[in-house]
Task: inverse folding
């Protein structure tokens, strides 16, 4: 079975902890990603996802231009070592109820794996593609 390192997105997008939720959402849209790691100085302190933005900011009617990602991020970051199996990542996401995991090598985050990455991976092993007649 394949490892997490083979299907992860290498590198990752990040924002500072003081960035507004509105700015983070624009960054996600531009980068076409569903999550951003949150930095405080040089240290990664959390992750903010599209789900965090909807559930913890938009749904509360808070001012998205003033609310910072630090207030809505998920911390600590859930991580998995890159040498673990794709199945391990799937199980971890299910157990933790998350859709993104930081991928670590020797404790340092080097990428991110998402539910979408798992879907693409498993699609290659599924039944033949559905086609329209």
Result:
């Amino acid at each position: 079975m394949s490892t997490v390192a083979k299907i992860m997105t290498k590198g990752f997008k990040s924002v500072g902890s003081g960035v507004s939720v509105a700015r983070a959402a624009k960054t996600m849209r531009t980068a076409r990603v569903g999550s951003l790691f949150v930095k405080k100085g040089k240290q990664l302190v959390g992750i903010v996802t599209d789900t965090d933005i909807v559930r913890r900011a938009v749904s509360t009617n808070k001012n998205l231009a003033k609310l910072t990602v630090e207030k809505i991020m998920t911390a600590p970051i859930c991580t998995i070592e890159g040498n673990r199996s794709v199945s391990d990542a799937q199980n971890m996401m299910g157990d933790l109820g998350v859709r993104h995991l930081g991928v670590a090598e020797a404790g340092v985050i080097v990428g991110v794996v998402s539910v979408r990455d798992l879907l693409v991976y498993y699609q290659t092993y599924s039944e033949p593609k559905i086609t329209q007649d």
Q: What stands out?
A: Helices lie at 4-7, 21-31, 50-56, 69-72, 86-96, 115-123. The first helix runs from residue 4 to 7.
